[in-house]
Design goal:
Layout (H helix, E strand, L loop, with lengths): L2 H18 L3 E6 L7 H16 L3 E6 L2 H10 L6 E2 L2 E2 L3 H25 L4 E5 L6 E10 L8 E14 L1 H9 L3 E5 L1 E3 L5 E3 L2 H12 L3 E6 L14 E3 H9 L7 H12 L5 E6 L5 H7 L6 E4 L1
């Protein structure tokens, strides 16, 4: 690439830097981008660059594959109900150990080692993510009440203590959050990271919510990318079976954020090099945007 092409890239990014300067962008970090070494490094460089140009990134990370790996080594079988990991007390201890003690520390270390200033948190720190138990209701017929399935210490976000995050942002730090919440009695709850990211983006009234995935974005019936979806159309995509599995909580997280005045939500392919910068700072963008 010649010097003029590089200058044109910077000029293209300028209006977006101006638009997002001083604003918060919440990024859910997960999938292949957390495993492939080169993608991990590109991710942290994207986050650091955002901070240096005046954008305030907040990172929420997952860790499902890492949890599965440790549970497998311990001879414990993972069971899922409608995409949610059934979490008894023993499983919760493993989840918290892996997410907070290993994955979170690794991400924070990578950011700091490359010149950023990150602070790792779980939802239990400062009552950051207050949780209620999640129940799953299964349809059993028109004349019968739904079956209530107890999935253990799986939670849903009840409240976010934004003071913790705003204090870190104001001090120039990048918050990195493990999706473990705290219940009414102080017990830990395992919460879907997409839903945590959506709730935090909503409470912070972030400029954008970006969810990294292992697919190009939301795919249509012909297995083609849907570049833009309006919130009114999300329910239809779920009901007609166009969207299934793990994409459902991602879209629900986007709806949660948009209902709290977040401008836009994006589901993008974290396998692409520098996917976050391409989405934020270029005309074309990548993945699927969800808008009101």
């Amino acid at each position: 690439m010649d010097s003029l092409s590089r200058a044109q890239i910077l000029i293209e990014a300028l209006p977006y830097i101006r638009e997002f300067a001083g604003k918060t962008v919440v990024i859910k970090y997960g999938g292949h981008a957390m495993v492939e070494p080169s993608l991990k490094e590109q991710f942290v460089l994207d986050i650091i660059l955002m901070k240096y140009v005046g954008i305030n990134p907040v990172v929420v990370h997952g860790g499902g594959p890492q949890i599965n790996h440790i549970m497998g080594k311990m001879g414990i079988h993972s069971r899922f109900v409608e995409g949610q990991r059934v979490t008894d007390d023993e499983t919760m201890n493993i989840v918290e150990m892996v997410l907070v003690g290993t994955v979170n520390k690794e991400i924070v270390g990578l950011i700091n080692r490359h010149g950023g200033r990150a602070v790792g948190l779980s939802g239990r720190d400062g009552d950051l993510i207050q949780a209620d138990p999640m129940k799953i209701y299964r349809y059993t017929g028109n004349e019968r009440p739904p079956e209530i399935i107890d999935i253990g210490r799986v939670g849903k976000v009840a409240k976010v203590n934004t003071r913790v995050l705003k204090a870190l942002e104001d001090s120039g730090f990048i918050p990195v959050i493990a999706p473990v919440g705290v219940g009414p009695e102080g017990q830990a709850y395992n919460i879907n990271a997409d839903l945590v990211a959506g709730a935090i983006a909503g409470e912070l009234v972030a400029k954008k919510l970006i969810l990294l995935t292992d697919v190009p974005g939301v795919m249509g019936t012909q297995d083609t990318l849907i570049p833009s979806i309006k919130t009114d159309d999300v329910k239809k995509l779920i009901e007609d079976g166009t969207v299934t599995g793990g994409m459902i909580p991602k879209l629900k997280a986007c709806l949660k954020a948009l209902s709290h005045r977040v401008d836009k939500a994006h589901i993008i392919d974290g396998r692409k090099e520098h996917a976050i910068l391409l989405e934020l700072l270029t005309d074309a963008g990548v993945g699927t945007e969800i808008v009101q």
